[in-house]
Amino acid sequence: MLRVLAGAGVLRAYPPLRLVRVARTLAAWGMGPAGGFAAMAILEPDRPCVVDERGTLTFGELDVRSDRLADCLSTQGVGPGDGIAVMCRNHRGFVDVSLAAAKIGADLVYLNTAFAGPQLLEVLVRESPALVVHDAEFEGLLAGSDVRRVLAWVDEPDPDALTLESLVEAGDPGRRTPPRRRSRIVILTSGTTGAPKGAPRSDAGIEAATALLSRLPLRAGWRSHVAAPLFHTWGWAHFALSMLLGSAIVLRRRFDPEDCLRTVTEEECDSLVVIPVMLQRILALPKETLDSYDLSRVRVVATSGSSLPGDLANAWMDQFGDHLYNVYGSTEVAYASVASPAELRASPGTAGRPPYATVVRILDDDGTELPRGRVGRIFVGNRILFEGYTGGGSRDVVDGLMATGDVGRFDGDGRLVVEGRDDEMIVSGGENVFPNEVEDVLVRHEGVADAAAVGVADKDYGQRLRAFVVRAVGSDVSEAELKDHVRSRLARFKVPREIVFLDELPRNATGKILKRALVSDHSHPPTEEHP
To answer: Can you give the pLDDT at residue 378?
Structure first.
């Protein structure tokens, strides 16, 4: 652990009295956001921490702002054990309320900004927060809830509105005392296979950061454009890392492919944090646009949240350089493995190898470990597994290892390969078929921009795949051509029974394809001849 932290530049020389203050702060407040950011405010008060459309806030300024906000939240009756739901895009308000809640011992429930009204209200009823902090654009979605609300980002200021900024201005900046109970972070699952579930975590401590840094070469003091949503495990991880690394997180409320490249270059970022669909959208820009941006300063592009389809990894590195790292995990188990640029060059879809203090095993249905090359359920062991869903229940656990919900294998070189969700596998002609394999083949066709596959009934094979394809710009590739493309590379029973062409695939805010929506919206798909 010391070697990893020293290599990342975390262990640095500071005046002894300052280190004593930090030790006392961490002992009192813990290693979560309350203690971590307060410690950085002692060590580096003038170092930039958050950069958004409204400017820059230092660690010292954020510390004072969160003290003021915590004071106002307390006077409004929000205290230890109460819940604060947060529905914010990537901006300073997300950080303000996260730190303030930690300082009063309130639990944070991070809401997906892509929630529909009914889905949002269902989560609020289940989690029962005392307060919802949200951007003004989501006001209509919350109309059916009677939970108290505070506005975070407001485009047009209203002097009569209760906003985070007005609470920050009104609050007492005096130092607070630690609450009797430390806050928890509740991050919601993506909800791609059912209703979103709340996955709570207490302070993960320094071990979670060490695990990631052991395979992801981030360094202290970097500027990082966190384009991935902060409410998601992946975006939140880099928000949390900033309190250890003393890094500045550069935020933008909305993702735009070219604006992302512009932000990285203009803000002189050393790293970029994304989800795979963002890489896809960037690479879909015209070649002359891509060539106009120089990312040579960037040393790490870190992606997670869903699989890397086809040759996306190599296409990115061919354009911008070999600095892409792919992190595999889940909301429940956190980080399971990390693939380096060299590993992605060798195997573009690999999930890599486990990081520090992490065990990954491939088990069969009886819980027996399988040898390399055999496909089974992926189980992970580390000290940062989640605590069970807020609504009850948990993931399967075998000998202290928790299921990720995926199936996969270790290849001959010991790299983890994720085949897909364990509930997406179909049996076709007596053979197991994973949609991911077929999707990868489809997106490798030059006429395909995106693809997804789901299982449907088949009178001859029992089940077959139905594929959904988004054509590349200018492409007129046909269903027959794509079936031939798959047939020439995979077994016959893996060829989709039909292929449906769409303008785009339905995705959630973290880039995962909503296959339930594909099944329900296209139960009787049109053909090319009869659209």
So the answer is: 96
DSSP 8-class letter at 489: T
Residue-number span of the structural domain to which 354 is assigned: 208-421
Beta strand spans in 68-142 (E): 83-87, 107-110, 131-134
In a domain? residue 251: yes
Mean pLDDT of 260-265: 98
Residues 171 and 237 occupy one common structural domain: no
Whether residue 89 is contained in a domain is answered as yes
Cα–Cα distance for residue pair 69/172, rounded to 1 Å: 8
Of 226 and 520, which is predicted with more confidence?
A: 226
Same domain, 224 and 278: yes
* Pair (259, 386) in one structural domain: yes
Q: Do 454 and 476 belong to one domain?
A: yes
Average pLDDT over residues 195-210: 76
Residue 510, pLDDT > 80, answer no
Total count of residues recorded for the chain: 531
The alpha carbon of residue 253 and the mean position of all alpha carbons in its chain are separated, in whole angstroms, by 15
Q: Which of 117, 156, 164 is nearest to 140 (CA)?
A: 117
Q: Are residues 127 and 220 in the same domain?
A: no
Higher per-residue confidence, 389 vs 251: 251
* 127 and 249 in a common domain: no
Residue 445, pLDDT score: 95
Considering just the CA atoms, what is the radius of gyration of the chain in Å?
23
Could you give the CA distance from residue 326 to residue 319 in angstroms, rounded to a whole number?
A: 17
Considering the domain architecture, whether residues 373 and 252 belong to the same structural domain is answered as yes
pLDDT in tens, 29-54: 988 899 999 999 999 999 999 999 99
| Whole-number pLDDT of residue 191 | 61
Angle at alpha carbon of residue 184, lines to 181 and 189, rounded to 5°: 165
Query: Alpha-carbon distance 465 to 457, whole Å?
Result: 8
Query: What DSSP string describes 342-371?
Result: HHHHHSTT--BB--TT-EEEEE-TTSPBPP
| pLDDT at 431 > cutoff 80 | no
Q: Which of 354, 388, 421 is the last residue of a domain?
A: 421
Q: Which of 209-213, 215-219, 246-250, 255-259 has the lowest mean pLDDT?
A: 209-213
pTM: 0.88
Please state, in angstroms and rounded to a whole number, the distance separating the CA atoms of residues 377 and 402. 10
Domain membership flag for residue 170: yes
Q: Which helix (H) or strand (E) holds 404?
A: strand 401-410
- CATH number of the domain residue 51 falls in: 3.40.50.12780
Residue 529 lies in a domain: no
Residue 369 pairs in a beta bridge with 363
The pLDDT mean for the chain works out to 90
Q: Are residues 314 and 402 in the same domain?
A: yes
Q: Angle 107-111-112 (CA atoms, 0-180°, nearest 5)?
A: 155
Number of domains in the chain: 3
Report CA torsion sign: 378, 380, 384, 386: positive
